[in-house]
Specification:
alpha+beta, four-stranded mixed beta sheet, 23 helices, 9 strands, about 50% helix, binds coenzyme A
Length: about 500
């Protein structure tokens, strides 16, 4: 349902639960309880004279009056703002939030015909101005729904996530990265013919434009590979003349997004080679996305085993709900800015240590542990010292992270010295965390085995997070296109908490 076209009549609870001004608070509370509502409209001969809410009852309960005797009129909000049934939801939203109301009576022909609550509106509001709604928005917006999407979702309690209507893990098991890219960009999995056509379309877009290729050696000498990518995407957008999403149609944005996602691995691989004193390797049109990336990075054609392992890793990390970088890309797009601006901002968000992930840190930890027998003492000392064990725990997953389950099986396929060792460290860590942090439900997250997989496939540690970004650019771009297709400026509010204004401005020089 479109929140902007819905009217109050579509949402209101009707008839409203009512009482009279001379009823007692106890009667009003009973009426509310019976109807399981948070408010009662106070009427006199059908006309609204006030509204009494749970909050009023709480205030009354804090006093020493007798709820069996105190009258509603003493505690209600008299002559409350009201809404008409035909008013649009955004107008209702504005009334409720600007006055910090939670409920408003709906009046038609001077008679109360219903009541509408903040909760009713939240069901349809496309973007909830979180801080305006109440004081109970959780820090970090944890669990707050800020948009509708058809791209995918994460179900933390079940250990499940999906792209469109398919399990992401099943997609990583069954399909190529290009097919999943098609699913995200075009909304459906391709059949064999469409799959070949899309693979051709994207392979033809891997070469960097000349301006960027000329600048890259100078860029690559500074900062981390992710910094280089951020600057390179800026240059790319400028060189290709990307215009604001506000001014272009869906086809033009799609074309830009395909070109961007196809060229990002080329930029990253070239940056890495330049930083390590090697010439960039030209992309090969006969290799898939992941195989070509590994080829450009190392200069050698990867084995099918390695290519498929990295492809599966990239499929598993293409998208993951409204994480910080994805949300950032959508916020920037909502201003009508161009694709380059949105992706540069997303890369910036990803670069922060709380988001960019810790696959290299998890691997550093395995190095520091050294042998399986030392794991217990190492993990115990770290947790007792208040440290976080890298690659364990997740904000959303309170069970096995489905990505780590699949990546664990990928490491088994790959073999190598780290496989048994990492599994034994995982078992020890889960046990020690269960003992020292009971009830916290801490298991491996995607980062733990991602590091093992990438390392075994020959990707250097400083390229772990950039490799994540190479695949995630497809997810970010899908969100940019979705946001642009039915855009509304994302503009929340903050509650001012400084000294009360207006204060007199002290004269200059005083
Ligand atoms: C991912 C992460 C940031 C999620 O954190 P969160 O949802 O905010 O969880 P909290 O910080 O509320 O932690 C809850 C409890 O579990 C503990 N905990 C969480 N992750 C832990 C870890 N990796 N090692 C040890 N203890 C951990 C916390 O110390 C806290 O314990 P307390 O209740 O005694 O204070 C966190 O698990 C973490 O820091 N993991 C390590 C870094 C990492 O692997 N990052 C990659 C993420 S994909």
């Amino acid at each position: 349902m479109d929140g902007m076209e819905t009217t109050v009549r579509d949402l209101m609870t009707s008839p409203a639960v009512t009482c009279a001004a001379d009823d007692s608070l106890a009667t009003a509370a009973h009426v509310m309880q019976e109807a399981d509502t948070g408010s009662v409209v106070v009427t006199d001969d059908g006309k609204v004279v006030g509204i009494l809410t749970e909050r009023d009852l709480l205030r009354a309960a804090a006093g020493d009056g007798d709820p069996g005797r105190e009258q509603v009129r003493l505690w209600m909000t008299a002559r409350p703002d009201v809404l008409g049934p035909e008013e649009r939801v955004d107008a209702a939203w504005a009334s409720l939030t600007s006055h910090h109301y939670r409920h408003l009576p709906v009046v038609e022909d001077q008679r109360c015909v219903g009541v509408v609550s903040l909760r009713d509106l939240m069901g349809v509001a496309r973007i909830r101005p979180a801080t305006e709604t109440s004081g109970d928005v959780p820090a970090g917006l944890e669990g707050v729904v800020v948009a509708e999407t058809t791209i995918g979702d994460v179900r933390g309690q079940e250990g499940f996530f999906h792209y469109r209507q398919y399990s992401a893990v099943d997609l990583a098991d069954e399909r190529s990265l290009e097919d999943v890219w098609h699913l995200l960009f075009r909304g459906e999995l391709p059949d064999a013919v469409a799959s070949a056509a899309f693979a051709d379309e994207v392979r033809g877009r891997r070469v960097m434009p000349p301006g960027l290729a000329t600048l890259l050696p100078a860029l690559s000498r500074r900062g981390s590979p992710l910094d280089v990518l951020r600057t390179a995407v800026s240059v790319l957008g400028a060189e290709l003349g990307w215009r604001p999403t506000h001014d272009i149609d869906a086809d033009e944005l799609y074309d830009q997004a395909v070109g961007l996602c196809a060229v990002v691995p080329t930029i990253l691989a070239a940056a890495h080679r330049l930083r390590t004193g090697h010439e960039p390797v030209e992309p090969r049109g006969d290799l898939g996305f992941a195989a070509n990336y590994l080829f450009m990075l190392t200069g050698e054609e990867p084995s099918p085993l390695h290519a498929r392992a990295i492809e599966q890793y990239m499929i598993l990390t293409i998208d993951h709900g409204f994480n910080a970088s994805t949300f950032t890309a959508r916020v920037v797009t909502s201003t009508g800015a161009d694709l380059g601006a949105a992706i540069v901002a997303a890369i910036g968000a990803l670069s922060g240590p709380l988001h960019g992930g810790a696959p290299s840190r998890a691997l550093d930890m395995l190095d520091a542990i050294g042998t399986p027998e030392r794991a217990d003492a190492y993990i115990r000392a770290a947790v007792e010292g208040g440290e976080r064990i890298m690659g364990f725990g997740h904000r959303v997953y309170k069970t096995d992270d489905p990505r780590s389950v699949l990546l664990r099986s990928v490491t088994e396929r790959l073999g190598g010295p780290l496989v048994e060792f990492s599994q034994s460290v995982e078992r020890t860590t889960v046990d020690v965390l269960a003992e020292l942090k009971p009830g916290r439900q801490l298991y491996t997250n995607v980062e733990f085995y991602a590091g093992v997989v990438m390392h075994t496939c020959g990707i250097p540690r400083e390229m772990f997070t950039p490799t994540f970004a190479a695949g995630r650019t497809i997810g970010w771009s899908t969100h940019v296109m979705e946001q642009a297709s039915h855009n509304r400026l994302i503009r929340p509010a903050a509650r001012y908490a400084g000294p009360p204004p207006p204060q007199p401005v002290p004269p200059a020089g005083g």
